């Protein structure tokens, strides 16, 4: 249900952004709103509290954001609060940002390696991703996980390319276990 809500509201905001040529400015404003909400726990408590009337919440939205963000985003926040969907705001914003990045052909990837990568290795990975996808630019988050032993694991959305030694060893172990079980099974049947 949360994905459906995020998609519905995120699509509406995205369509407005494209129609009004506001994709870049709304991205910046959303990041600012996220920062304000993260740094002001009391504001979030007010907007989430079931006992506080919606009219008071709308007044708080106006006082905090009016003049600091566009009327389009202020109006969107008012709709989200009015419809009682404030708790879905982080998912709505994440969905919107992902849609804008797709629209602008910005790929997002997570690359995990067993050791830190050099600048040249990172450049080659980025170039390979650009060559094998439809993206024009990449945002890559590099992580180190020593348990991977060697190789790389690349995650882009719901796609994963895992060429780590750990995954190869796991597959090899699984294959050997299967062979061992089949051999035992054949031995039992022969008896």
Gap from first CA to last CA: 56 Å
CATH architecture of the largest domain: Orthogonal Bundle
Please give the largest β-sheet. 4 strands, mixed
CATH fold assignment of the largest domain: Peroxidase, domain 1
Mean pLDDT: 87
Q: Helical amount among residues, as a percent range?
A: 55-70%
Helix/strand class: alpha+beta
Taken in chain order, the helices and strands follow as: HHHHHHEHEEEH
Q: Low-confidence parts lasting 5 or more residues at pLDDT below 50?
A: none
Report the CATH superfamily of the largest domain.
N-terminal domain of the delta subunit of the F1F0-ATP synthase
Specify Rg, calculated over alpha carbons.
Answer: 24 Å
Strands, count: 4
Q: How large is the count of helical segments?
A: 8
Strand content: 5-15%
Q: Please indicate the count of domains.
A: 2
CATH class of the largest domain: Mainly Alpha
Bulk shape: elongated
- Cross-sheet strand order for the largest sheet: 2-1-3-4
